[in-house]
Amino acid sequence: xxxxxxxxxxxxxxxxxxxxSYLRAxxxxxxxxxEGRYAIWTLGDDYEAFLPLRHDxxxxxxxxxxxxxxxxxxxxRSQLAILSDLLVTGADVIRVRIADDDxxxxxxxxxxxxxxxxxxxxxxxxxxCSTIERKAVWHKRKPDQAVNYLRNVxxxxxxRGSYVMTVISKVPPMLQSTNDRLFQEPGEPEQPYExxxxxxxxxxxxxxxxxxxxAAATGSLDSFDQAVRDGVSANLCEAxxxxxxxxxxxxxxxxxFSWSRNRPAANQTISRIVIAHDRVPYLQEAARQLRERAxxxxxxxxxxxxxxxxxxxxPTGFVTVYGLVDDSAKRVRVELxxxxxxxxxxxxxxxxxVQCKGQLVREGRGYVLRQPMGFAQAADVE
Length: 382
Hints:
By secondary structure, the chain is α+β, with helices and mostly antiparallel strands. It folds into three domains: about 10-85, Metal Transport, Frataxin, Chain A (2-Layer Sandwich), CATH 3.30.920; about 90-170 and about 195-295, no CATH class; about 295-380, CATH 2.40.50. Helix content is about 40%, strand content about 25%. The protein has twelve helices and 15 strands. It has helices at about 10, 15-25, 60-75, 80-85, 110-130, 145-150, 180-185, 195-220, 220-225, 235-245, 280-295, 340-350; strands at about 30-35, 40-45, 45-50, 90-100, 155, 160, 165-170, 250-260, 270-275, 295-305, 305-310, 315-325, 330-335, 355-365, 365-375. Strands 4, 5, 6, 7, 8 and 9 form a six-stranded antiparallel beta sheet that branches. The longest helix is centred in the middle third of the chain and has 26 residues, at about 195-220. The mean pLDDT is about 90.
């Protein structure tokens, strides 16, 4: 037996135009409308629905409740399930399920919840960045478009079934004019950035899962190198590892995608990806190697000079600067001109930090800053 939703506040939050989009996407057609007041929608010759178009009418909640009951009958689904869909008609909904028997009651220790939220955010940020450009690693500075996108992503109520986090990514509705249909080029229409991100997330998760399977069979990182073009990055792999690992065991992570009814997805769009726990070690190692090998452009190092090297008569010299790389203190070797080398000598003698910018590259077990620019004592840099 399905329960009826009788609480007026539960249905009063429904937005008329989003309900209209849901009806249209479900095969209903608007048969009659009184502008700004109501619309009559029909499904064939069998069903007729009354949709109020103003929130301030006295019986708004009652009318929406009647419509919800009718949709439950037509679709043979619970009113609760339909209400949940109506509330996110204009969004792609991604459910992140952490499969673990210890989470079967739908609860999670608060520290783990904090980490899960952060890693889910990192996952969406990785997808938002790789939608703009395919890179093996995204360092601290992220594109403004990706940062702004994350500000509009919302987290819904958690659901039962181990632990399920619901992520809501709003998508602009699809609108076409008659002229668009007549003159548009063959193929799929250009998608808004928000839809590109969620589609890219689905594709990159599938690519990471395949890359881990191939890496297990070959013992090679090549599959992850190739998957970078599909949106896989060290950031995405690290986020997956964080979601799938706790202090005791590795967990499976199940992603399901429900695409906005306002902008229907292509038939071949992925709807579910499962990252099994045996993929986690390969994702973790791939993340480490991708991050270590990727150069960082415009990297700025600041710290003390801990080593000076210069052969007699050589026009250049090498210095080692002790500074932060990915939030860890590392030794970075820099080749300098004669004048810059003299600056380094003075800084070393006086115990003053130096500052320099260039391309940071991992070489063997250490780091090298190539194409250094603006080498100076930190106190001299404004």
